[in-house]
Amino acid sequence: QKEVEQNSGPLSVPEGAIASLNCTYSDRGSQSFFWYRQYSGKSPELIMFIYSNGDKEDGRFTAQLNKASQYVSLLIRDSQPSDSATYLCAVRHGATNKLIFGTGTLLAVQP
Amino acid sequence: DTAVSQTPKYLVTQMGNDKSIKCEQNLGHDTMYWYKQDSKKFLKIMFSYNNKELIINETVPNRFSPKSPDKAHLNLHINSLELGDSAVYFCASSQDFTANIRGYTFGSGTRLTVV
């Protein structure tokens, strides 16, 4: 089992729809969770981080964390073609502090 | 001003050569990292330094040797390059080793191609 798992996609949504990206993790001691966006040929950039169970909203983005079920999700409302990118889930390992990344989900927003 | 800068951006070299990648951050962060991203986009940590001290050393070949002359710089030297070393190498930094605040800031990456 991989430490951080994501569906590789591609996830295709129409413009204006809600895109839902999911991530599960194996280390129950993990405390910090991050979503990065990576455009093709570019470096990852942080878009959201969440530490507590529940929802955290920032503009069109909402991160959701459920530690009991060991999953993190990212919702993107009113998706735009400019949101088309690979979204990387990252989990800080509780014991080692390493930031472990998933393989990413490719999101394609269709105009 | 670029927060985390890496050089070179592209590196094409022959098998068996030795090459270095340099990284500098001007964020005042204590901790720096090297990650390798393969063709399937998987980002895997290689090394981490906190205030010039090696704190994470993943299972990578001995041909890879990091060096941190000060906390703002982390370089990666690779000896006897192999085809399988072809990847994008990202440098990153964080405020401290817990990376709790704002996660990591990544450099623009170095695309290494070994031919």
Radius of gyration of chain B: 13 Å
The percent range for helix content of chain B is under 10%
The oligomeric state of the chains shown is heterodimer
Biggest interface, chains and residue tallies: A-B, 24 and 23 residues
Distance between the termini of chain A: 36 Å
Content-based structural category of chain A: mainly beta
For the largest beta-sheet of chain A, the strand count, sense and barrel status come to:
6 strands, mixed
Provide a concise account of the structure shown:
The complex is a heterodimer of chains A (111) and B (115). Chain A is mostly beta strands and 111 residues long.
Word description of this protein:
The complex is a heterodimer of chains A (111) and B (115). By secondary structure, chain A is an all-beta fold. Chain A has strands at 4-5, 11-14, 19-25, 32-38, 45-50, 54-58, 61-66, 71-76, 85-92, 99-101, 105-110. In chain A, β4 and β5 form a beta hairpin. The model of chain A has no long low-confidence stretch (mean pLDDT 93). Chain B has strands at 4-7, 10-13, 19-25, 31-37, 43-50, 53-57, 64-70, 73-78, 87-94, 105-106, 110-114. In chain B, the strands form 2 sheets. In chain B, strands 2, 4, 5, 6, 9, 10 and 11 form a 7-stranded mixed β-sheet that branches. Chain B has a 4-stranded antiparallel β-sheet with strand order 1-3-8-7, with no helix packed on it. Chain B has 115 residues and is mainly β. Chain B is globular, with a radius of gyration of 13 Å. Helix content of chain B is 0%, strand content 55%. Chain B has no helices and 11 strands. The chains are: A mainly beta (111), B mainly beta (115).
